[in-house]
Amino acid sequence: MNAPASFYLGTIPTTVSTGRRKLVNVRQRSLLEAKIRVMWVLAVFVLVTVCALLRITYLGFTGVTPRHGELGDLLIPARGEIVDRNGVPLARDFRVYSLWFNPKAMTAGSSLIHSPEEVTAGLLRIFPDLDRDDILARLRAGRPCYLRKSILPEDANKVHALGEPALEFPLEATRFYPQGSMAAHVLGYVDSYGKGKVGMEQAFDDQLVSSDGRAGSSVLSIDFRVQSALEDELAHAMLLSQAKGAAGVVLDVDTGEILALASLPSFDPNHVKPTDMVISPQEAAQGDVPRGFNRVTNQVYELGSTFKPLTVASALDAGVVTDLGRQWPATPLHVGRFTIHDLHNYGATLNVPETLIHSSNTVTARIADELGGVRLKKTMEALGMNERPYVELPAKGFPIWPRGEWPRLRTMTVAYGHGIAVTPLHLASAYAALVNGGIWRPATLRKLGAADIPAGRRVFKASTSARMRQLLRMIVQYGTGRKADAPGFRVGGKTGSAEKPGAGGYRKHSLIATFAAAFPMDKPRFVVISMMDEPQGTAATSYQRTAAWNAAPVIQRVVPRIGPLLGVMPDETRDIDITDLRPLVPGSAEE
């Protein structure tokens, strides 16, 4: 009996022992799986950390900011901002309400609750400048369309109060120009497809829609304070002289940066009208141009006597003029069947200072005749007069440039600004080279750092440039440029009045009046060009149409306004030394 009992007692531990071993195995497997899972999680975590560190290191070295397709892309505008050289915004994206007509807003029946006439009357009370017939026609047509772009939130509330579900107010991004029409020809505008047109909006188009361009600002060389002053004085002069148009430039003589560029009449880039860009054939036949046409860079003119200092400088450089006191015949000059004469009789002979002070065509022609067409043409080419103006704007006029070898008469007429037509920007760059020591640099609308200033090319000797600074100052002190003198700012420059060409020859009563100036002449910093297109003789201009009475006064008024802004303060105790030239000009030695 003990044996079976002994058997049963012995089997119990065996069974328990087997179960424990199974439990141990299960636990071991569970622990192993847990460890494997932890290792996987740890491995993924390490991988992500390594990738993040590598990405941060890459971005730190390259400076690239991830934007495409990320949330940050939604936080920057669709088109980058344009600012002036001091960071003042000139163009930026702006979210505004628009007035949209949605005839499908009503699920049944008429698209409008009230009659089209009643809705039109209500809209006119809110927007009095709307075209009643146009709005009425759009409402009656029943097609989706904009009734007005860019409306104020308070006007949207007023429209909402009309109780018309079909009048909707989508919030849209639009291009906004905070300064209105100021610098419109520099900036251009953006069309309904989001493409830049005409100005720097077109020139910078790719840059402005790039990731970096959208996130940052595109900086222009323009100073909006200088731009405002130039436009204001040109508009004032245009009104006084009843001129058809006006143009002006302010240029840094040492860098080529354009601080202001104005073409009048202008347009509002916030509200561009078709007539701003296109005119009728009848208007074109009368010599008119659209408001959007840039007179500074796209229109070429014969700029008259402003070319005389360039001719004299070329003759000084070539050694043709070695004695400024030499007397040149000032009598009418006969070349073939043509006769070159002066506006007034200045006497039998004139020296070089007198020639520029009185603006003598005959003596300038004689100087050019001795200089020769080859050398004068080479100087003009070095000044870029045979190419489109150097500037980023897309609209650039090609000069009327006499090709081939210049015959004798052509050389003479080019010497005093006829027979060659260039833009006012060409003239500004040429005068910068004339006064800055003789170096020509391309004009630019980009703000330049010290390392970005181009070396340029030498056109005149430094000694020639120094002598021309004296002569230009004398023209303003004693000659045709007196009305350009601004006390304390040491202005120098030259007048130019040229008849406009037309069918059958030059039009005697249609003038381009120009003044090319630089200041301060003891250490030139800036060139200023003012031009009037077809000024009329009015009481305000003493019934005179020439540059001395129309373009020169612009310089006299604008220089004191912009000089202090640009770091040039008036100082009547300083001036360029012209004591060696005064004896050559009768009546000046006593002053």
Automatic annotation (TrEMBL):
<feature type="domain" description="Penicillin-binding protein dimerisation">
    <location>
        <begin position="77"/>
        <end position="213"/>
    </location>
</feature>
<dbReference type="InterPro" id="IPR001460">
    <property type="entry name" value="PCN-bd_Tpept"/>
</dbReference>
<dbReference type="GO" id="GO:0008658">
    <property type="term" value="F:penicillin binding"/>
</dbReference>
<keyword id="KW-0645">Protease</keyword>
<dbReference type="InterPro" id="IPR050515">
    <property type="entry name" value="Beta-lactam/transpept"/>
</dbReference>
<dbReference type="GO" id="GO:0071555">
    <property type="term" value="P:cell wall organization"/>
</dbReference>
<keyword id="KW-0472">Membrane</keyword>
<protein>
    <submittedName>
        <fullName>Penicillin-binding protein 2</fullName>
    </submittedName>
</protein>
<feature type="transmembrane region" description="Helical">
    <location>
        <begin position="38"/>
        <end position="61"/>
    </location>
</feature>
<keyword id="KW-0121">Carboxypeptidase</keyword>
<keyword id="KW-0378">Hydrolase</keyword>
<dbReference type="GO" id="GO:0005886">
    <property type="term" value="C:plasma membrane"/>
</dbReference>
<feature type="domain" description="Penicillin-binding protein transpeptidase">
    <location>
        <begin position="248"/>
        <end position="547"/>
    </location>
</feature>
<keyword id="KW-1133">Transmembrane helix</keyword>
<dbReference type="Pfam" id="PF00905">
    <property type="entry name" value="Transpeptidase"/>
</dbReference>
<dbReference type="InterPro" id="IPR012338">
    <property type="entry name" value="Beta-lactam/transpept-like"/>
</dbReference>
<keyword id="KW-0812">Transmembrane</keyword>
<dbReference type="GO" id="GO:0004180">
    <property type="term" value="F:carboxypeptidase activity"/>
</dbReference>
<dbReference type="Pfam" id="PF03717">
    <property type="entry name" value="PBP_dimer"/>
</dbReference>
<dbReference type="InterPro" id="IPR036138">
    <property type="entry name" value="PBP_dimer_sf"/>
</dbReference>
<dbReference type="InterPro" id="IPR005311">
    <property type="entry name" value="PBP_dimer"/>
</dbReference>
